Amino acid sequence: MRRRAWMRVGALSAVAGLVATTVWAGVGTLRDPSDTLAMGPGAAGKPAAPWTEAQAVGAARKSGRAVEVRAKGTSRQVTYANPDGSFTHESHAAPFRVMQRGEWVPVDTTMIRHSDGSVGPKAAETPMRFSGGGDMPL
Questions:
Q1: What is the pTM of this model?
Q2: Which residues of the chain form beta strands (DSSP E)?
Q3: 65-76 pLDDT, tens per residue?
Q4: Can you tell me whether residue 71 is helix, strand or coil?
C-alpha cells in the first residue's frame, strides 16, 4: 500500500512539473525566426551584447515582437521575451546553433575545404578537421 502511495506522489509531481514548464514557456509555442528580434535595437546586422531579461522585455514591449534574451541562450536553448511581459523558452535535444566569431549561426554540417587543405563542417558544435588527403597511399 505504501509503495502505491509513493508511486502516486511521484506521478503527480511529474505531471505538475510538466504543466508548470508548459505554462511558463508560453504553452510551448514554437517561434518563426522571422518573428523575433535577436540582434537588439539599432544592431543593423551587428552582433549585440548579451541582453538581460529586463532589457529584452523592454525591447519586446516597444517593438511588439518577441526578442531573444541573449544572456540565456545556449546551443540547445533559446528564451524569448514577449511583448506582454511573459517569456517563451525552447529546448532542443540536439544543438540547433553554434557560436562562431561571437554570433549564433545555424548548425551546418556541409563539408568545406579550409585554406590549409583540410576538410570540416561549416558550423558544428565540436570543431573538427579531417585530412584533405596526401600524395601517398595509406
A1: 0.56
A2: 36-37, 66-68, 77-81, 87-91, 97-100, 103-106, 108-113, 119-123
A3: 999 998 899 999
A4: helix
